[in-house]
Amino acid sequence: MDRLPHEKGFHVSWDQLHRDARALAWRLQDARPEAGWRAVVAITRGGMAPAMIVARELDIRTVDTISVKSYNHQTQAEPRIIKSPDMEMVGDGSGVLVVDDLVDTGRTLEVVKAAMPKAHIATVYAKPQGRPQVDTFITEVSQDTWIFFPWDMALQYVKPYHGADD
Length: 166
Ligand SMILES: O=P(O)(O)OC[C@H]1O[C@H](OP(=O)(O)OP(=O)(O)O)[C@H](O)[C@@H]1O
Ligand SMILES: O=c1[nH]c(=O)c2nc[nH]c2[nH]1
Ligand SMILES: [Mg+2]
What we know:
CATH architecture: 3-Layer(aba) Sandwich
CATH topology: Rossmann fold
Radius of gyration: 17 Å
Number of strands: 8
Number of domains: 1
Largest sheet: 6 strands, mixed
Helix content: 10-25%
Structural class: alpha/beta
CATH class: Alpha Beta
Bound molecules: 1-O-pyrophosphono-5-O-phosphono-alpha-D-ribofuranose, xanthine, magnesium ion
Number of helices: 4
Distance between the termini: 43 Å
Strand content: 25-35%
Mean pLDDT: 93
Order of helices and strands: EHEHEEHEHEEE
């Protein structure tokens, strides 16, 4: 599928991210296997903040990371694993929760799922193209939306409306 230009922006504050990651945790509690979740694997870097919140809510103490790099700013390149989790612990992924901030095209998750085929994949946000790769998510945004996370933003002055044309 051709990539759409990102015409819209969806700006997420820390507070909103915290609420949405908590909502994800509550949904994942209902989806847990009988023996509970064994571990959380965060997809770095964006998955680390949501993974910490999910692990805290669900009292999961085993937390590992997989590092997949696919974007330079808004330009996508071939995703590649830069760092794997402890595969002896993860196994085929059964009982393991993989957490990322979002799925866009789904190419990052394709790589992750190849490494851990039985893992449960959870993202906070999802775009339609990548949605089939995800087992649990909270909020869907359109494909032409770029999601801006709090770690990529800063508070700044905005001109008052009445002076906008001055
Ligand atoms: O579904 P996809 O089209 O593959 O895109 C989604 C991935 O892209 C971003 O990560 P990025 O590679 O930019 O790295 P980062 O998390 O370190 O910012 C985002 O955090 C997801 O991991
Ligand atoms: O910060 C981000 N926002 C996005 O919408 C996105 N899609 C892929 N990678 C992304 N990173
Ligand atoms: Mg990422």
